[in-house]
Amino acid sequence: MIKNIVSFIKNKPAVAVGFLFATSSLLFGTWVASIPGIKQRLGFTDGSLGLSLLLSPLGAITGMLLSTRVFSKVPVGRWMLNGYRFLCLLMILQINSINRPMFWTCLYLFGLCSFLNGVSSNATVNLMEKKTGRLLMSTCHGMYSLGGAVSAGLAALMFSFHVISGWQIVIIAAIIFTIITANQKLLLTNQDIIHSRSGIKLPSPTILGISFICMVTFMAEGCVADWSAIYLKESLHAPKELVSLGYAGFSVAMTLGRLNGDSLIAKIGSKKIVIAGCLLSAIGFTIIVLAPLVPVAIVGYILIGCGSSCIVPVLFSASANIPGVSTVEGFAMVTTGGLIGFLTGPSLIGFISEKSNLSKGLSLLIFMALVAAVVAWRNKFLVNKKAVTAGLEYDEQLY
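User: That's the sequence. What structure does it adopt?
Assistant: Structure tokens below.
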């Protein structure tokens, strides 16, 4: 892992793009810690909050419909520079919303911008892998997980010094905005037009399978993000200083897994990685819903992070290399399922929690993860070790 990180750091263009992955989770981690306060300030119930969160997947679907048009005209580097800076400003407004209409507008724009940002950054990493002949996707996603762990830890620290979420996001967003602007030249070197020659095509059953796995994985991540703090606070009565530690443990596990992911994928094979990851996530959610104490629940979140860590990089790489499908189309078809899961999963959990309780809501993820494991086992685009190493290869000497 150390060799991989050192080599990655030396690749300045890859680091600049990798920081964008961290940007998303740095902002999102602060958002996670702010949700209980927003719920109370704007007078939401579990059900009304869950319904409100549906606006983000609606924005993501809008982004999917616009993606081929946007990226047929705008160079991917220019979008990354401006899209992620806009996300910083948007998150400040979202967390500091003074009323529900403002909050709802921000949620919709968050989903739209996040989708287009995700397509641009992941497509750029895929292009870098092809140009350099080395795996980078898992490490870049490791940057995302690292950002989540850092932001959750910062949230706990700032809360201990009585810094409210509204000021936390201003401080973090200002730092991120400055760093992105400093990386402007490196980002703008990515002048590729990652357009599709046609509109979004109807996906095949095999592609739908990848999209379903992505949906379940992102649903799990979204539920950890949006409901972990509330679950620890309201179900297990954790103090404010500990409510962000479920997401922090999840993010740390994701980070360590992804920073080792490029080598693990090449050695084990993408199919085995995805199947094992789905099963481990199911075990993690089982522990959470049965947990009598906060530390036990945090262990469950850590197991979910370990299981989920390498699934998304595998799926994103597979989506960018589907025969007869452009990069934008592949990412759009697969990540649409992912983002819908990420953003509708918390809403669905909210509805179940409103009618029953949060533990039963989270139990749905156990079943979904087991189904995803079966789908991965039968998917032909997820390959064994020999097929992985026949393409981009993890070479110890390069790292």
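The chain is about 80% helix and 0% strand.
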